[in-house]
Amino acid sequence: MERIQTLEQFKEQINNNKFTVMKFDTTWCPDCKNLDRFIDPIVDEHSDKQFLAIDAEEFQNLSEEYEVRGIPSLLVYKNGEKIAHLHSKFAKTPDQIREYLNELR
Q1: Does the N terminus or the C terminus of the chain have fewer Cβ atoms within 10 A?
Q2: What is the distance between the alpha carbons of residues 35 and 37, in angstroms, rounded to a whole number?
Q3: What's the pLDDT tens digit per position in 37-87?
Q4: Cα torsion 55, 77, 32, 39: sign
Q5: C-alpha distances in angstroms, 47 versus 37, 41, 83?
Q6: Which DSSP letter does residue 86 get?
Q7: Catalytic: which of 14, 29, 68, 76?
Q8: Crossing angle, helix 94-102 and helix 30-45, to 10 degrees?
């Protein structure tokens, strides 16, 4: 999963006309590492969506702006707007992630 490096890159990616799933995480988070172990097949199942990762601490202003209260959180953007948010407590299993992503239309 490509990692966001700049604020400009973030803004460019979320302004897409397709669903952009942004995984807010950190390097020290055990739940983030667990999610990384099972996310690749799920990403492959959703080739209609773009998946990116961003460090919630490095981009703390974005985390605050988009109300990221726990990590990992999966936020979905389309045309520059946040349209969905899967909070960390609901992002623990492959089934939870799949159900969340399948609801996006």
Answers
A1: C
A2: 5
A3: 999 999 999 999 999 999 999 999 999 999 999 999 999 999 999 999 999
A4: negative
A5: 19, 10, 18
A6: E
A7: 29
A8: 50
79 is catalytic: no
> Which DSSP state fits 102?
H
Cα–Cα distance for residue pair 69/43, rounded to 1 Å: 23
pTM: 0.93
The residue annotated as part of the active site, out of 21, 32, 68, 76, is 32
Instruction: Count Cα neighbours of 37 within 13 Å in the Cβ-side half-sphere.
Output: 8
Q: For this structure, is 77 an active site residue?
A: no
Place of tokens 């669903």: 19
